[in-house]
Amino acid sequence: MLPFTVKVLEIIKEIPSGSVMTYGQIAAIAGSKRGARQVARILHSMSEKYSLPWHRVVNAQGKIVLHNQELANRQKELLENEGVFIQEDQRIDLNHYKYTGEMAFKKEKEDFPWE
DNA sequence: AGGGTGACGGGAA
DNA sequence: CTTCCCGCCACCC
């Protein structure tokens, strides 16, 4: 297995419940700034057998982008169950939920929509 | 071998 | 805000 793939899997495993990361962000941390599509492919092929929190990965616009509608619905449910608010336009506010690895909750000045 | 294809991203108009 | 467009690269025929 490629080193890049191993890193990607490790990074995804560290995303805490209630947060999300983007494909490109994960690729950059893993060492390939333009490897977003590879991250997506890795998730597509390995999310089951490596029991990853695959649902905590969205695109750079904060949207769920699975082509498979059934899986997309499952991802939305899983995220909402963790307290991630999905807006009417199906986007997630990355300013609130994007996991940076360090200051995960740097912006607590703004109120959460459901409170 | 070679062309098509994405669970993507970012810049331009 | 919306398209459109191109770079990207491992996989799958």
From TrEMBL:
Q: Which UniProt keywords apply?
A: DNA damage
**What does UniProt give as the signal peptide span?**
none
Top-level taxon: Bacteria
Does this UniProt record's set of keywords contain DNA damage?
Answer: yes
Domain Methylated-DNA-[protein]-cysteine S-methyltransferase DNA binding residue range list:
3-84
Question: InterPro entries, from UniProt?
Answer: ATL_DNA_repair, MethylDNA_cys_MeTrfase_DNA-bd, MethylDNA_cys_MeTrfase_DNAb, WH-like_DNA-bd_sf
Q: Could you tell me which Pfam families the record lists for this protein?
A: DNA_binding_1
- What is the name attached to this protein's record? MGMT family protein
